[in-house]
């Protein structure tokens, strides 16, 4: 008696355990087993066909899938889930052109996966499995931004690849907005792949054009995006364009192309790239394209640190400010000169400074008038009892403001602040997102637990 194709059935009817249970109970004869297998194969082919079409009929069928699950127009979480399931099914149905095994992924899941590339999709799957991992399926045509940067604070040089699907780079700044799929972050070493790591029909070509993981993925990702008409280029950090003034003790011969910063209570890294500003690698990731930066201003400029506020144009006459705090003062000049001014970004902090000085001057004048009215006038018209320190009221006010800022800096505890950008966090999120960028290094016990 033929057996049920349970793997295909689970893939097709993912999210509907009631249907799977019914099929398993009813498949009590060879004829019924064959019929159910044919149904599963037919549904999988139809789903794959729908995902590759862009016409009204395909859109209507996707809406119907959402409605069948009780979600109008497929706009709720159920609709997003149906869309993800359809992409997963379509990706699994396509032949794998290139496979790279044992790649460390940090977002959206922290685990080692095999990365598979088909004609239309990039996806991750657990070693030995045939289906994509849930939520890690990306259509080549939908990748809007791709970045390649060194992983900060790792003794051995490693690189992160960061892929943003369309309309996900600014999601965390939009109140109530959610994306169907999260950005994708995976890490590769600076060395070349070990024998047997790369497989599929494209393995020989890959070996002839690349000798390191980086050259392999730069070639493969670019080639696959171009094959479907996506002109997105991989943007890499470049120390000749921007680098921090801080010396890296763990890699002293290499200039850091990032600066440390907090976003709310989360510590992370800022990369000032030719295409915009990237912040990572804690969830939610954020990339601000240059054409979306309305203005930049510097606040809380103290002796050792300063904050940077970026005003982001979200479209539809909406704007949002995101603040990056506790940036080292040594990087103030390079950020301002090498990035803000070089890209002709509007600096509104000057207006803020002028306003603060005007208010200080006005307050100083008011204080002087009160002193003159309440005390005896001296030969120079000054107020009686004024401290004999040789400073004007304005200078005293500025000195008092500086002393207050220095005290605030000494008392500052980034862990006590909420997320200033308004993004929400879960208590266990930092455990899920893998901490610092591309924390692909995992001990053997953790890998075994994940695989299980």
From TrEMBL:
Residue ranges annotated as compositionally biased, kind Acidic residues, are 401-452
In alphabetical order, the GO MF annotations are: histone binding; nucleosome binding
One of the Pfam families matching this protein, by short name: Rttp106-like_middle
**Per its UniProt record, what Gene3D superfamilies does this chain match?**
2.30.29.120, Pleckstrin-homology domain (PH domain)/Phosphotyrosine-binding domain (PTB)
Residue ranges, annotated region (Disordered): 66-85, 350-452
| InterPro entries registered for this protein in UniProt | PH-like_dom_sf (IPR011993), RTT106/SPT16-like_middle_dom (IPR013719), RTT106/SSRP1_HistChap/FACT (IPR050454)
Task: Enumerate composition-biased segments (Basic and acidic residues).
Answer: 350-373
Lineage: superkingdom: Eukaryota
List residues of the Histone chaperone RTT106/FACT complex subunit SPT16-like middle domain: 256-350
- So what family is this one in? Belongs to the RTT106 family.
What's this protein's function?
Histones H3 and H4 chaperone involved in the nucleosome formation and heterochromatin silencing. Required for the deposition of H3K56ac-carrying H3-H4 complex onto newly-replicated DNA. Plays a role in the transcriptional regulation of the cell-cycle dependent histone genes by creating a repressive structure at the core histone gene promoter.
Q: How does it assemble?
A: Interacts with histones H3 and H4.
Put simply, this protein is called: Histone chaperone RTT106/FACT complex subunit SPT16-like middle domain-containing protein
Please tell me the species this chain comes from: Thyridium curvatum
Q: What is the lineage of its organism?
A: Eukaryota, Fungi, Dikarya, Ascomycota, Pezizomycotina
